[in-house]
Specification:
Helices cover 61% and strands 9% of the residues. The chain is mainly alpha-helical and 172 residues long. A two-stranded antiparallel ribbon has the order 1-2. It has a two-stranded antiparallel sheet with strand order 3-4.
Length: 172
C-alpha cells in the first residue's frame, strides 16, 4: 500500500466510524412503548460498538505506519539552487511552520527606518558631520533567503504529493 492510499483509507475509516457513532446514538435506547427498528436491537448496537472499536484500531495502525514511513523515508528537494535531503517528517515540519519562521526572521532585517542626518554643530566654524546608517547584513542575500523560504512550502507540497503516491507504506 502506498502512503496516499493509507491516508485516504484513514479518511474513509473515520467516516465509517462517524456512521457507527450516529447509529449508536440514534438506537442505543428507546421507550418501551416504541417498536424497535431492529429485531435484536441490543445485538445491533453491540455490533456497531465492536465495529467502531475495530475501525479505531485500524486507524491507529495506519497512522503509526504512516508516521514510521515518514520518519524513515528521505526525500531530496532543490531549494535555492541546492539539493537538500530530509525525511518526509522533517519536510512536513518545514512545510507546517519552520520555513515561515525563517522567512519571518529574514523579513526582520531592515534599515529600521533610520535616515541619514546632519549632526547639529555646537561650535561655529567646525565642519558639519553627516550621520550615516550602517547595515549589518547584505540586503541582496536577505532578499534571496526570503524568496527561498517563501517558495519552500509549495516546493515541499509538490514533491510530497509525488512521494506519497509512489512510496510504499512501512508496516509496523
Amino acid at each position: 500500500m502506498k502512503i496516499i492510499e493509507a491516508m485516504k483509507k484513514v479518511k474513509d475509516l473515520q467516516r465509517k466510524a462517524d456512521d457507527y457513532k450516529g447509529k449508536v446514538q440514534a438506537h442505543c435506547a428507546d421507550l418501551d412503548c416504541e417498536t424497535p427498528i431492529y429485531s435484536d436491537q441490543k445485538r445491533e448496537v453491540a455490533g456497531w460498538l465492536q465495529g467502531h472499536e475495530d475501525i479505531v484500531k485500524e486507524i491507529l495502525h495506519l497512522r503509526c505506519s504512516i508516521q514510521l514511513t515518514n520518519l524513515k523515508t528521505e526525500v531530496t528537494i532543490e531549494l535555492g539552487g541546492k539539493f537538500v535531503k530530509k525525511t518526509i517528517a522533517e519536510w512536513i515540519h518545514r512545510r507546517r511552520d519552520l520555513a515561515k519562521l525563517q522567512e519571518a526572521l529574514y523579513r526582520g532585517l531592515t534599515d529600521r527606518g533610520l535616515k541619514e542626518q546632519n549632526l547639529v554643530q555646537l561650535t561655529p566654524g567646525t565642519p558639519q558631520q553627516v550621520i550615516k546608517r550602517r547595515l549589518y547584513f547584505d540586503p541582496s542575500e536577505r532578499d534571496k533567503k526570503i524568496e527561498v523560504y517563501r517558495s519552500e512550502p509549495s516546493l515541499i507540497d509538490a514533491t510530497l504529493e509525488i512521494t506519497n503516491a509512489v512510496t510504499d507504506l512501512i508496516e509496523i
